[in-house]
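Following up on my earlier thread - several people asked me to post the actual chain instead of describing it. Fair enough. Here it is, all 114 residues.
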Amino acid sequence: MENVIDIIGSLITLLGAIFIFLGSLGIVRMPDSFNRMQTGTKASTLGTILTLLGLGIIVPSWFGKVFILIMFVMITNPVSSHTLARAAHFVGIKLSEKTVSDVLAEDKNNKKEE
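Reply from S.P.:
Thanks for posting it. Predicted structure:
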């Protein structure tokens, strides 16, 4: 039974590593900073959570600490990427030509008109 739990934990950890790898690949392939932030944040958040969850399954005595780390990652990763994206937009980092809409710029223009 212990070997089955170790295998399940190892597979979940491997799946997390695959998500982290795909996130890093997405960072290289995306056309602008905003897309890179989005790709990196989503993949790294899920990859980190799966990796930590797998470790928590392999070593059950760590599960409480792993749970706290997962909660920390779930809160801080999206908040930090949102803050970085807004700062990048504020300083004028250009969007890709493929970008369909810029809602933040539209919102700024609507506020100026009022």
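The chain has a mean pLDDT of 88. That should answer part of your original question.
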